[in-house]
Design brief:
Helix content is 33%, strand content 23%. The protein is an alpha/beta fold and 324 residues long. The chain has two domains: 3-141, 3-Layer(aba) Sandwich (Rossmann fold); 151-320, no CATH class. The strands form five sheets. It has a five-stranded mixed β-sheet, covered by helices on one side. A hairpin with a 2-residue loop joins strand 6 and strand 7. Helix 2 packs across helix 3. The two termini are 37 Å apart.
Length: 324
């Protein structure tokens, strides 16, 4: 179903009145369509553009309209490192509504970043500033920009990886999520794990490289060959998302049956400046289960008890966090 069809259906059910900008797109859309439609929306005189996607879509919007009008990203891509996105689709809607009905309509310039995936796979890249877009001001409902791992933290990452490997149990399946920290664990094991993917390891052997959600859930159905399993994830530096950003292969169903171990250096946790780790699995029960406090593995014999929160929920226009 096309977005146009959804909007027209809503218009028939509510007082919503919407016009369709430009010609319909009935085939596979592309970045060219995104840029063209953004320019048409500016020409039509809209107050704000909401766009759904990831960092690539943010770049397309920036390329096409620059800072002509405010924008707000609805997080729905794989890479969501930029700080022009709301925490969730729900918070995007509530932020846009409160901004449109407000008197000041304050905006701030926030970063659009992107990353060269091929270089990242080789461990040679970090998110680079591509430009800035004007975004409604509300830090509580906007995500932060992903922070690159500083060179000074490299030794800490390597030490954490060595310590984690020393504690790995025989016959336990480890599902290593994306990221430099988990990739370092694979490197200590001497395995060619995928920096952007999810890898399955057992008894020092790479069982499956770059596993997708179907493969992981098939292993779950097979009870991981009758042995225990652990999902190992590291948060996005500077943002704090540990579930639901860049690791969508790790599904809510998997997390409902397999325990989660979070790994992060003290430096990465410090980069959050007191903000919690965020979980957004797409399943309320799973997020509620993860909400609270977690023991984050930070190195040899050390753990940090750190707050984990499900992403903001909107209750009658008021942003709150649920406690369990």
């Amino acid at each position: 179903m096309l977005g146009e069809d959804v909007v027209q259906g809503l218009c028939s059910l509510t007082v919503l009145d919407a016009g369709i900008c430009g010609t319909s797109i009935r085939d596979t859309s592309s970045a060219t369509d995104t840029r063209r439609l953004a320019r048409l929306l500016v020409k039509a005189g809209v107050d704000i553009i909401l766009f759904a996607g990831g960092d690539g879509t943010a770049r397309d919007v920036l390329d096409s309209i620059g800072g002509a009008i405010p924008v707000l990203g609805i997080p729905s891509g794989v890479k969501i490192y930029s700080s022009v996105f709301a925490l969730t689709p729900t918070t995007a809607g509530s932020l846009a509504a409160s901004w449109l009905t407000g008197e000041e309509r304050a905006v701030a310039e926030r970063d659009v970043v992107d990353i060269d995936e091929e270089l990242l796979r080789a461990g040679l890249a970090s998110p680079a500033l591509y430009g800035t877009l004007s975004v409604p001001v509300d830090p509580s409902r906007l995500q932060s920009r992903k922070a690159a791992t500083p060179a000074s933290d490299a030794n800490a990452v390597a030490a954490l990886a060595r310590a984690f490997v020393r504690g790995m149990e025989s016959n336990r399946t480890y599902i290593l999520g994306p990221g430099g920290t988990t990739n370092a664990i694979g490197a200590v094991l001497g395995l060619a794990t995928t920096r952007l993917g999810v890898d399955v390891v057992r008894n020092g052997v790479l069982v499956t490289a770059d596993a997708d959600a179907h493969a992981l859930e098939a292993m779950l159905d097979a009870d991981f060959n009758g042995g225990p399993a652990t999902v190992v994830l590291t948060p996005l530096g500077g943002q704090g998302f540990v579930v639901g950003r860049g690791n969508q292969q790790v599904t809510a169903r998997l997390l409902s049956h397999v325990p989660l171990q979070i790994v992060a250096t003290d430096g990465k946790l410090s980069s959050l400046a007191g903000r919690p780790l965020w979980v957004d699995s797409g399943d309320d029960e799973v997020d509620a289960k993860l909400n609270g406090y977690a023991k984050v593995f930070t190195g040899a014999g050390t753990h940090t008890v750190y707050p984990v929160r499900r992403v903001f929920e909107e209750t009658q226009g008021t942003t709150t966090t649920k406690e369990y």
